[in-house]
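Worked example 2:
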Amino acid sequence: MLENCQNAKERWGGVNIIIDRWLQERQDMLVQYCAIGEADQNEEVRGEKLRRLCQILVDYVSAGHFEIYDQLIKEGREFDDEEALHEAGRLFTIVDGTTEKLLDFNDKYLETDDLSSLNTDLSSLGETLEIRFSAEDRMISVLHTSHKDLVNN
């Protein structure tokens, strides 16, 4: 039994680092999001902040889809947590529904220097991010945090 606990700790303890790095990227993205709204910016500065936001946004979305969610699902399966896996499936549907909107925002502002609709688009982006973050946080809770005691024993 001790060996199983040690194996779990070795296998899933590193997930904390991955999630922490990803959540730091989320925070960096939010800082950049807020920086775009600062007063007294010329269009060139605002455009540069927007490009940085788009870069972080795409990196964040990609890391979620190609690294984080897979690790979380794998952990839920390893702990044979069918209830959590079912809820994660529902949550992933919510997250997946936001992905196209986020990528559309990125694509729009990669293709144009016209910032006339940026404030409206940023508002919509903020609402979409709020939905996504809520679902992601819940997914982390049901698939990872709920097994933390099993990993740390």
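The two ends are 10 Å apart (CA to CA). The chain has one domain: 2-152.
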